[in-house]
Write a structure and sequence with these properties.
The chain is of the alpha+beta class and 352 residues long. It is built from ten helices and eleven strands.
């Protein structure tokens, strides 16, 4: 009897460990992604990153108290989340092998944990039918849900939350006009917020690389149709503005309002920087969603290169419109200076 009882209790012990791991992974991923992708973009955006892991932690903790209810909740919630995630990826990227592998990695542990807690519920019911006494003392009865809730919070406090001082000190001068950024061997004028900088499409996404490159059908692309002051798109190409190169974005990255001293060797997945850059003005808009800029570097017919605000250089499918992928047109200081002189335009703000 004792050996059977021990064997029957094994799924519950495994479920407890998995619940703690799943809750911790969800908390760390949610908080880290929020800090990296969407810090400073409002309560609704924060909720999209933080509420799902909070609900998952609550469901896992419930499993420690009511394994049957919690197990069904994990199974139902995990299945719904999996279906929604696959549907959104199918619409944007297609159900490719990497997408399916990611789905298994993300959601299989949740579903497995829910199933194991249903077995634990059967074990507890069998104990009750046999007249086994419940463990006395609050801590002995509730240490599992307490630990399931406490471990993720502790790991977040020791890990992602350590980024908070830097995020709170992120430099933002509030200016969103055309900016001259001079530093590290490159001097460029970057377009003001509008059609030349992170303008969303009617579907709410930022345009794909192909949409930018093919705009107007003239070969000049969206940036080439941007007016001289950078505030409107013209029917005919004037070719004052263009997409920047990877090297130009990298060399314009900043930290604390000064150049970060970044360079790229043309091959590595990350630039080498004298100090770690951040998502801040004058190059970035900290309150806008994009975390990388598309560049004119397109190694082949399928991908173009983007640069994120930390100096990472990654390939992006040319046909995929982005939520986190933006763009910003540039022009040389010489051309822009002549344009501004003729139109009486001044930059908003100075160089870093």
């Amino acid at each position: 009897m004792t050996s059977r009882r021990t064997l029957r209790s094994l799924p519950g012990h495994i479920a407890f460990v998995m619940a703690a791991l799943v809750a911790t992974a969800a908390a760390v991923t949610g908080v880290s992604s929020f800090f990296y992708e969407s810090w400073g973009q409002g309560t609704a955006t924060a909720a999209g990153y933080l509420v799902p892991p909070a609900l998952l932690i609550a469901a896992c903790a419930l499993c420690g108290i009511r394994p049957r209810a919690g197990g069904f909740l994990l199974l139902a919630g995990g299945a719904l989340a999996l279906g929604w995630w696959l549907w959104t990826r199918r619409a944007s990227h297609g159900l490719t092998a990497p997408v399916l592998v990611t789905a298994v990695v993300f959601f299989a542990p949740i579903l497995l944990t829910g199933g194991l807690f249903l077995l634990e519920a059967r074990h507890r019911q069998a104990l009750a039918e046999q007249g086994a006494l419940l463990t006395r003392g609050w801590w002995k009865r509730n240490y599992r849900p307490a630990l399931i809730a406490a471990v993720p919070l502790a790991v977040v406090a020791l890990g992602p939350a350590r980024q908070l001082p830097g995020l709170l000190a992120r430099y933002d001068d509030g200016l969103r006009g055309a900016r001259t950024i001079a530093g590290n061997g490159v001097t460029l004028v970057w377009a003001p917020l509008g059609p030349g900088w992170n303008q969303r499409q009617p579907d709410g996404l930022y345009p794909s690389w192909n949409a930018i490159a093919e705009y107007g059908g003239s070969g000049a692309g969206l940036c080439g149709h941007l007016s001289e002051d950078g505030r409107s798109l013209l029917p005919n190409a004037v070719r004052v503005w263009r997409l920047p190169t990877v090297d130009e974005v990298v060399r314009s990255l900043t930290l604390g309002g000064t150049n970060a001293g970044c360079t790229w060797d043309g091959r590595s997945p990350h630039a080498t920087c004298a100090k770690p850059p951040d998502k801040e003005t004058p190059l970035w808009a900290p309150d806008e969603r994009p975390i990388y800029y598309l560049t004119s570097n397109a190694p082949d017919a399928d991908v173009a290169l983007g640069v994120n605000y930390t100096g990472g250089v990654t390939p992006h499918r040319r046909t995929v419109a982005g939520g986190g992928g933006g763009y910003r047109c540039v022009t040389s200081a010489t051309v822009a200076g002549a344009v501004r002189t003729g139109l009486g335009i001044r930059d908003q703000g100075g160089s870093p």
